[in-house]
Amino acid sequence: MFLKKFPRQVIILSLVSLFTDIASEMLYPVTPIFLTAVLGSSMAVVGMIEGIAEVTSGFLKGYFGILSDNLGKRSIFVVIGYGISALSKPLPGIFPSLSTVIISRTADRVGKGIRTAPRDALLGSYSNGNSGAIFGFHRAMDTLGAALGPLLALIILYFSTNDYKLVFLIAFIPSIIAVAFTILVKDRKPGTLIHEKKKFLEFWRDSPKQYKSVLLLLTMFSFVNSSDVFLILKSNDISQSGTLAILSYVFYNLIYAAFSFPLGRLSDKFGKAKIYSSGLLIFSVVYLGFALTSSLLLIWILFAFYGLYAASSEGISKAWISDFVPYEQKGTAIGLLAMLNSFAIMLGSMLTGILWDQFGSFVPFMISSIVSLVIALIIALKFFPKS
């Protein structure tokens, strides 16, 4: 079985992500509908909440990435990060209000910010020329949880007659299971990291040119890669059904989970630049479709292709970055990427919400489509082998 190819810690970290995403994704597609349909929030408010969550997460990803390198420890941040996220899940179910949603979403992202770079550095440390496969498998398990979570939410809503508060409360259960698995996470080489205290500017100065180029291009793309909640809301507008909107998101995650590992393996064989840029081309077509369509059937087709985009970009971007630096710098390298991407997504989400309120969904989706196409072409020109 192919699982035997992966170290035990890769499997454990993947199980942690599976159960965490079951919990998180029970809430992720439900929250924007809860905000707009139940609490009466505007698109700009949705964008603001996502922006706050992303910038909080982004800053902490960078900080704890470099801290894990400097301290030579990874696992402690994994335990703390997943623990904080678990505690944040039930809050809107106990105190249903806009302020509580903001606090809960922000606290969840605090946990994500603490754990992400140290966890990904651990994953990258087990690479032996197969970083794409390792990160692809982890993303597949993570995204399987992202498909199961919304399905559980729909079942709960169906039997509780749309009791959104109950979804927030039950999401606490898989979160606790995930936290239990984190106790098994161990540092790969305790005490052997080089404890050379570095700051981001020093790391940036000494980092390879290829790392800098890839980091800048991925950050540029993140400015137009706004939160997925806007795709869910677009689906909700067309279908006039929260259930169908959530199911379309589930469908996207199933495609994402199914293709993450195979595309990760392909990236190891054919090059991460080729697979990633192909993903951006798909992203461009998907956002063009979302800008123009009013067809529910086409929305489902677009979500399928969006799953292919995610499978060819999310885990592969981390593997790509991880390949450029040694083990003792992986936390910093991935943390800096995550931090800059989160800041960019924050601005992009806020701008998308404002543009949607002022001009409708066409304008922000078209901007995303055009910019992603340009970046895909730049990557092809810069990183594809010259014949």
Number of strands: 0
Tell me which CATH architecture applies here. Up-down Bundle
Helix and strand composition category? mainly alpha
Model regions low in confidence, pLDDT < 50 over at least 5 residues = 190-194
Terminal-residue CA separation? 38 Å
CATH evolutionary superfamily: MFS general substrate transporter like domains
Q: Kindly provide the name of the CATH class.
A: Mainly Alpha
Can you summarize the main beta sheet?
none
Which percent bin holds the helix content?
over 70%
> What general form does the structure show?
globular
From the 3D structure, determine the CATH topology.
Growth Hormone, Chain: A
Cα-atom radius of gyration: 20 Å
In total, how many domains does the architecture comprise?
1
Secondary-structure element sequence?
A: HHHHHHHHHHHHHHHHHH
Tell me what the structure shows.
The chain has 387 residues and is mostly helical. The protein has one domain (8-185, 196-383): MFS general substrate transporter like domains (Growth Hormone, Chain: A, Up-down Bundle), CATH 1.20.1250.20. The protein is built from 18 helices and no strands. It has helices at residues 8-27, 30-38, 43-71, 75-88, 91-94, 98-125, 131-159, 164-170, 172-182, 200-206, 209-222, 229-239, 242-270, 272-292, 296-311, 314-322, 330-359, 362-383. The model is unreliable at 190-194 (pLDDT under 50).
Short synopsis of the structure:
The protein has 387 residues and is mainly α. The protein has helices at residues 8-27, 30-38, 43-71, 75-88, 91-94, 98-125, 131-159, 164-170, 172-182, 200-206, 209-222, 229-239, 242-270, 272-292, 296-311, 314-322, 330-359, 362-383. α13 runs antiparallel to α14 (272-292).
